[in-house]
From TrEMBL:
This protein's UniProt keywords: Membrane, Transmembrane, Transmembrane helix
Pfam families reported in the protein's UniProt record: DUF1003 (PF06210)
Protein name: Putative membrane protein
Domain of life per record: Bacteria
Organism per entry: Sphingobacterium detergens
Species classification: Bacteria, Pseudomonadati, Bacteroidota, Sphingobacteriia, Sphingobacteriales
PANTHER family documented for this protein: INTEGRAL MEMBRANE PROTEIN-RELATED (PTHR41386), MEMBRANE PROTEIN (PTHR41386:SF1)
Length: 239
């Protein structure tokens, strides 16, 4: 296996890990120059060595105004180091099952915010009023002004409001978790796209260098053939 010598560490690495300094993005290149001032555009570095500088650049890139990384950013960096898919890790996270009270709150909120509840409640009120006013001649169990009905309505409103708030709190927690996951996935995607651009640039420069080497080799061979032909022509002339 062909090896090359890294210009920053002097160690031997496989040739497929060789990266030209000119193919490295400028921010990462500055980080390398900061630690190794003699490193230039015409120097070579190994991909495994470049990974350390990429991690340092990503850490600086993600730092907020306080100069610290958030927990989400640290998770993204760790997944980037481990080459793991964030969406898969989020799918594998243990999700606590909703309790009976939480499921009841969700059902109550779902039913209380529907036209079925509104129509059913209006029909119930009309039947209540009709029974007491007309069928029982306003002398039934709840004559006008319907004190018992007002009490029932007050109790329903008093109980329904906190139950709906419980469901809304659960929905807000789900929305926050969804936003958190979306942020992590988008950030990882941005970093992966940057990495992909860098790999493509490196591949283009590497192919160009290989093409230059092939052309140089062909020119040398043509020069050798021309010299040989000139010698043959001189030999024929001398005869």
């Amino acid at each position: 296996m062909d090896n090359f010598t890294s210009d920053i560490s002097g160690q031997q690495f496989p040739l497929e890990q060789r990266i030209l300094g000119a193919s490295i993005r400028q921010p990462i290149f500055k980080l390398i120059r900061k630690e190794y001032p003699n490193f230039g555009k015409d120097k070579y570095i190994a991909a495994t060595e470049l990974t350390r500088f990429k991690e340092a650049y990503i850490t600086e890139f993600l730092k907020d105004e306080s100069g610290q990384l958030s927990q989400l950013d640290q998770q993204v960096i760790q997944s980037f180091k481990d080459n793991k898919v964030i969406s898969a890790s989020m799918d594998n996270d243990g999700v606590t099952a909703a309790s009976v009270g939480e499921r009841v709150a969700d059902k109550v909120a779902e039913f209380g915010g529907s036209w079925t509840f509104i129509i059913s409640f209006v029909v119930f009120l009309l039947i209540w009023i009709a029974v007491n006013m007309y069928w029982l001649n306003n002398k039934g169990f709840d004559p006008y002004p319907f004190i018992l009905l007002n009490l029932i309505l007050s109790c329903v409103a008093a109980l329904q409001a906190p139950v709906i708030m419980m469901s809304q709190n659960r929905q807000e927690a789900k929305d926050r978790e969804r936003a958190r996951n979306d942020y992590m996935v988008n950030l990882k995607a941005e970093l992966e796209i940057r990495e992909l651009h860098e790999k493509i640039d490196h591949l283009i420069i590497r192919k160009e260098q290989e093409l230059v080497d092939v052309q140089r080799d062909q020119v040398e061979k043509l020069g050798f053939l021309l010299q040989k032909m000139e010698k043959i022509e001189e030999a024929f002339k001398n005869k």
